[in-house]
Write a structure and sequence with these properties.
Elements lengths: L2 E5 L11 H4 L9 E5 L11 E5 L6 H4 L8 E6 L10 E5 L6 H13 L3 E5 L7 H18 L4 H12 L5 H8 L1 H15 L8 H8 L2
Parallel strand pairs: 1-2, 2-3, 3-4, 5-6
Antiparallel strand pairs: 4-5
Length: 206
């Protein structure tokens, strides 16, 4: 399915040189329009209009009252500043059409990506699930429960994780971790989302 990209600045989902950027259509009659850092404008002629999201809600771009819309949000999952994964979180507002969701899913799958569908909630699926675990591990490290090496090894050998939680969040960047956890904490007020001390320090030292 042909898609066109309107881009302003760099994209977290598709960094420079990414094959998804290279394979985009250069014509205006593509079926799907992907917006990366560009102000949203409706386009009913497209099967779907996709807005790349950061830590914000899709409703910040389109409002909460869109009905029978072809507009969706998306974010390709990245662990901090690590390279993007193969997973795309597709954000479906309440009024989204099934046809728009199907078109977006088919487009991403044709590009070799996997797709999961989330409602329009800040943090979507992955961050809301995993960030409390990373925060807990960092707090346990501060409290002296165990060394980083021992906690990471426990999770890898005991739980089968490919890398330990502290190893993973440090590799992705503690300052980036602060940005994401702070957005969730401000939205939900849940203590498990509160940025841990090491992330706060890293953000202030940037």
């Amino acid at each position: 399915m042909a898609y066109a990209i309107s881009q302003n600045g760099s994209s977290r989902s598709f960094p420079d040189g990414d094959s998804f950027l290279q394979n985009a259509s250069r014509t205006s009659n593509a079926e799907i329009l992907v917006l990366c850092g560009v102000a949203f404008a409706p386009d009913a002629s497209k099967s779907a209009v996709l807005i790349e999201l950061g830590n914000e809600s899709l409703a910040e771009h389109i409002g909460d009252d869109c009905k029978e819309t072809n507009v969706l949000g998306f974010a390709r999952y990245r662990n901090g500043d690590d390279a993007p994964s193969a997973l795309v979180e597709l954000v479906r507002p309440a009024g989204a059409s099934d046809a728009a969701v199907a078109a977006a899913r088919d487009m991403f799958k044709a590009a070799g990506l996997e797709v999961v569908v989330s409602s329009d909630q800040i943090g979507r699926i992955i961050d809301r699930l995993v960030l409390p675990k990373y925060n807990a591990a960092l707090r346990f490290l501060d409290e002296g429960l165990a060394t980083q090496a021992d906690m990471d090894l426990t999770c890898k050998l005991g739980l089968g994780y490919p890398d330990g939680p502290i190893e993973r969040v440090v590799r992705g960047g503690l300052a980036r971790h602060f940005e994401v956890t702070q957005a969730l904490f401000e939205t939900y007020g849940t203590p498990s989302y509160a940025p841990p001390r090491r992330a706060v320090v890293a953000s202030r030292r940037k």
